[in-house]
Amino acid sequence: MFQGTIDTGTAMPIEATVNGDVLFDLGMIYSTGRSGLIDLVAAHKWFNLAALKGRVDAIALRREVADLMSEAEIAAAQREARAWMTTNLSRLDNSGNYHVTWARPALQPAAQTVESL
């Protein structure tokens, strides 16, 4: 059991530290069922995001997962990936600095879409 203290003043939001490796690991967790149950929609989403963040090996795994999914499930995974990007990555600038934005999300689809690579 943890018996220390956590300095929340210096803690960074997870979105600020996200990288392709973390996203890839999430894809592995959901594709293999290490979290309890296999969730192909979640696995596809995380592999898709990992590929966008530079994990080239995530492309092949996303393709393998997609072969086991229906078109509706793939579309759901792509929608979830776009929603995650809109919510999280829009807060990061090109240098990786985290910025909190309070603007209301646009009702139009995001300019950057997640498509199969």
Verbal overview:
It is built from five helices and no strands. It has helices at residues 14-17, 20-32, 40-52, 57-66, 71-88.
- Average pLDDT, all residues: 77
The biggest sheet, with number of strands, parallel, antiparallel or mixed sense and barrel status, is: none
Topology pattern, helix = H, strand = E = HHHHH
Q: Shape from CA axes?
A: globular
Structural class: mainly alpha
Portion in beta strands: under 5%
Q: How many beta-strand elements?
A: 0
Residue stretches low in confidence (pLDDT < 50, at least 5 long) are 98-113
Number of helices: 5
The radius of gyration over CA amounts to: 16 Å
Features:
117 residues, mainly alpha
Summarize the SSE layout with pairings:
Elements: H1 14-17, H2 20-32, H3 40-52, H4 57-66, H5 71-88
Helix pairs in contact: 2-3, 3-4, 3-5
